[in-house]
Design a protein that fits this description.
This protein is an alpha/beta fold. It has 2 domains: 183 residues, Class I glutamine amidotransferase (GATase) domain (Rossmann fold), CATH 3.40.50.880; 106 residues, Arc Repressor Mutant, subunit A (Orthogonal Bundle), CATH 1.10.10. Helix content is 49%, strand content 14%. It has 14 helices and 10 strands. The chain has an 8-stranded mixed sheet, sandwiched between helices. Helix 6 packs antiparallel against helix 7.
């Protein structure tokens, strides 16, 4: 019997948030005929325009039996999460679904429906701080590509929806089928859920010169101790003021940011240099190889040695 996937859209949704996962499930059903039945739905049904202007045809909201509810994200999220009919539908569908999932800012809709209370969740890194502020009962993990907490899965932005869908297919049909789908789509199988969304905070829109100075100082002194007090001094703020400002602008803590900077520097050294793992660990401020290994597993889902082997194989 086909697993029914309900894909919830709304005016102003992000097209890739829908098309990416939908393509994964559609191709999986080629390899395992009848594996999935895809239903796109929206309040009122009919033609629903994405933020790009392209419209898709959607069925009216119907909280009948479904295997998986998938809520897309996009610019129209704020209106969707304020629509009582949408939230009622999400709650009703989730009650009977085996899985509840979201892509990008679709997590805001799940949170508004109360489905993320007491759970870990992720979203697009640019929106992570806003999700944490607006829904304090949700534990937001801005680093992750996707997170599974019980039957609720949330993912980061746009292409991360493909990673999420591949993980769902692997959960349903096995790793071999998911790998076939990835090869057919010419995408990587699979970026681990815990992999960082962005590299070394390089894409973060840092507005404050003080926070920017602190990050630049950290990058230049990775081999040295970098407690929050030292970074706060560079920023000319008290440690408490600095921690608050840093979290507000980046959606993460100074300690987590320093760890990510160190991991990125270590990865670059392992991929392009000949220094041993222990040497790299000391040079980038981890102190020992075991601490660096744990950090790599958290951000990349694999140990430093595997990252080095992968880079050499690719070369």
């Amino acid at each position: 019997m086909a697993r029914t996937i309900l894909l919830l859209v709304f005016p102003g949704f992000q097209l890739t948030d829908l098309a990416g996962p939908m393509t994964v499930f559609e191709i999986a059903a080629r390899f395992v005929p009848g594996a999935y039945a895809l239903v796109t739905c929206a309040e009122g049904g009919g033609a629903v325009a994405a933020s790009s202007g392209l419209a898709v045809q959607a069925a009216p909201l119907d909280a009948g039996a479904c295997d998986t509810l998938l809520v897309v994200g996009g610019e129209g999220t704020q209106a969707a999460m304020a629509a009582p009919a949408v939230l009622d539908f999400v709650r009703a569908a989730a009650a009977g679904a085996r899985r509840v999932t979201s892509v990008c800012s679709g997590s805001f809709v799940l949170a508004a429906a109360g489905l993320l209370d007491g759970r870990r969740a992720t979203t697009h890194w640019r929106r992570a701080a806003g999700l944490a502020r607006q829904f304090p009962r949700v534990t937001v993990a801005p680093d992750s590509i996707f997170i599974r907490d019980g039957k609720v899965w949330t993912s980061a932005g746009i292409t991360a929806g493909i990673d999420l869908a591949l993980a769902l297919v692997a959960d349903d049909l096995g790793e071999a089928v998911a790998a076939q789908v990835a090869r057919e789509m010419v995408v990587a199988f699979r970026r681990p859920g815990g992999q960082s969304q962005f590299s070394a905070l390089g894409d973060l829109p840092i507005e404050s010169d003080r926070i920017g100075r602190a990050l630049a100082f950290a990058r230049a002194h990775l081999g040295e101790p970098l407690p929050v007090e030292r970074l706060a001094e560079v920023a000319s703020l008290s440690p408490r003021q600095f921690a608050r400002a840093f979290a507000r602008e980046t959606g993460t803590t100074p300690a987590q940011a320093v760890m990510r900077l160190r991991v990125e520097a270590a990865r670059a050294a392992l991929e392009t240099g000949s220094a041993g793992v222990e040497q790299v660990a000391h040079a980038t401020g981890f102190g020992d190889a075991e601490r660096m290994r744990r950090a790599f597993l958290r951000l990349f889902g694999q140990p430093p040695q595997a990252v080095r082997r992968g880079a050499r194989a690719a070369g």
